[in-house]
Amino acid sequence: MTPTITAFAASPDRGRGMARDMRVRWALEEVGRAYEVRLLSFAEMKEAAHLARQPFGQIPTYEDGEVTLFETGAIVLHVAERFGGLLPEGAARGRAVSWMFAAVSTVEPALLELETARFFDAGQPWAEARLPMVHGRVARRLGQLSAHLGGADWLDGGFSAGDLMMVGVLFRFQDALVGFPNLVDYVARGAARPAFQRAFAAQFAVYQASLQA
Ligand code: GTB
Question: Which of 156, 146, 149, 141 is closest to 86 using CA atoms?
């Protein structure tokens, strides 16, 4: 059965590929699986039908007739395990999964905190004073990631679901990568992959269509 994913009917990122359905689209493109997309308004995301798929009323979700999944990382892991090609064999498999988790639980939180501090907390009397500390946390995390990557193309040998998730995280926060040229190149390398390009074009087409609606 062709998998169905969910995505924003009108993405607030204006087609810049920042929403997390992009990571799921990219994974499906990498493994060469066609997919359908159920587009949801913000109101529809909070209705019972979607809450049954995603208890937090968010996108993306994934259904393939056998499983209904939420959480981007779990979906990408399922796609990688079900269809093959995104996870190496043997000991390297566990390390690739480790990088998937590192992307969303070690690297992304620091970047999200910076986004919160810069945009959502702006105007609070304490916001300016807090910024250097938040910038420091981001610099430390990105510095550690940059040191691990070094001059390599990918995090652990060949391209894997770990890279897909890490590039997916960093792609959204590219302005934070200044000072880490190897991470800038890493994101560019990921974004240049034909599967990424197809995924990006597909989500951009949704945004363009939303302008006509
Ligand atoms: N942990 C979950 C996962 O990884 O699947 C988080 C899912 C999530 O945050 N989904 C967001 C959502 O549905 C969309 S991707 N938000 C609506 C809601 O919570 O009501 C996050 C996102 C949103 C918008 C932008 N943007 O405008 O640039 C970028 C990323």
Answer: 156
Q: Give the whole-angstrom CA distance, residue 132 versus residue 150.
A: 26
Does the Cβ of 195 fall within 6 Å of ligand 1? no
Task: Region of 188 please: left (phi>0), alpha (psi -120 to 50) or beta.
Answer: alpha
CB-count exposure of residue 32 (10 Å: 0-12, 13-18, 19+): exposed
> Rounded to whole angstroms, how far apart are CA atoms 20 and 74?
12
Please give the distance, rounded to the nearest whole angstrom, from the Cα atom of residue 167 to the centre of ligand 1.
16
Q: What is the pLDDT along the chain (213 residues), one digit of tens a residue?
A: 999 999 999 999 999 999 999 999 999 999 999 999 999 999 999 999 999 999 999 999 999 999 999 999 999 999 999 998 999 999 999 999 999 999 999 999 999 999 999 999 998 989 899 999 999 999 999 999 999 999 999 999 999 999 999 999 999 999 999 999 999 999 999 999 999 999 999 999 999 999 987
**Backbone phi and psi for residue 38, each to the nearest 5 degrees, phi listed first:** -95, 115
In the chain the domains, ranked by start, together with CATH numbers, are 4-86+195-212 (3.40.30.10), 91-193 (1.20.1050.10)
Give the amino acid at 136: G
20 lines ligand 1 (CB under 6 A): yes
- The residue whose C-alpha atom lies closest to atom 1 belonging to ligand 1 is 71
Provide the token pair at 111.
């970047």
Q: Dihedral through CA 197, CA 200, CA 204, CA 206, nearest 10?
A: 120
